[in-house]
């Protein structure tokens, strides 16, 4: 092996110019940071490749910028930046549903930290300019500390929560119509069997929630974090309930109120653009929270459960439905891709934490169940809709944003399947001081 430095041997002479080490190929870099030969094919703009030639999935690093994204943000964030920007191509799958690629990568690409000397040699060969982070794609939100400096306040301040909701939910109502389907429901459905359609499963979910809450004609329901008003409209239409929904997304509130009027439900249903903390203090017969808890922050759980309790009549029921951590030991904060591209400031708790907080807010927990695999099926349906409407979705929101949604939904599906995250429903009552809960000896709803 020849020396990478050229010097003269004459005593007292000035050393010759230092020669830069050979520029490593992308395949060399992959080889240095993987524990064994990848089971997926990886090719690059420099003509190098690694991995089995017959792999059904190929990752193609198309540009030097793509390599810089990956090198300057190791892990999921760098890969996501390169993919969203088009600098990393995933061949063998549709961009609206890259599930098969993620599944293959989860089992077939095991990363390791290279030895310091090896890392230094690669860095010198690449040139330090290659290790300067390129500007991120426009779909990326700023990190949390920048959100605070931008005047949005501390994590889960009202203004900052409103901005986080705007980032995710105000993408385009038309886009969500194509991805979510007619129900416009962006939460876990309930499948009686895998042959159920997505629409049937979403109706099943609303019926399950209504049953757990024992909804009856004439009762009042508060639905916090109501989205496009799916639960509000279902409760009014199918159960004769007077329902109020609140959401921090202006676009959702406008769409939901128009749907209420279109369906002739204005005498029973209403959706307001409102923080749940500002919802009316009237005593409701039931409160549903379907997919809100992920956004409010763990430190706000005591306030959150007290706020919902204070809006319930004695004997009233609360149904809390949210994504949870599979283990208390894992981080409550999502990975960098989810935080920057999907749910800024989102936080997940283990189900035991939710039960404890509801209990400590003087709510009596009556029932709990895990719907983890139902969410995997739900996400499969959303990815399918995105693929079927791909061209129209790209025309509506742009290629980069459509790639973000395909990636995050497929990745979430894999996480639910592998029990990395879960979905729990917790049913509680506002029980009187002398122990009257109005809850029967056995559940009065059908699973």
TrEMBL record:
It comes from the Bacteria. InterPro entries: CFA/CMAS, CMAS, MeTfrase_dom, SAM-dependent_MTases_sf. Residues 1-23 are annotated as: Disordered. Residues 175-428 form the Polyketide synthase-like methyltransferase domain. It comes from Dactylosporangium vinaceum. Residues 1-10 have a biased composition (Polar residues). The lineage of its organism: Bacteria, Bacillati, Actinomycetota, Actinomycetes, Micromonosporales. Its EC number is 2.1.1.-. It is an enzyme of class 2 (transferase). This is Class I SAM-dependent methyltransferase. Belongs to the CFA/CMAS family. GO terms for biological process: methylation. One of its GO terms (molecular function) is methyltransferase activity. Keywords: Lipid metabolism, Methyltransferase, S-adenosyl-L-methionine, Transferase.
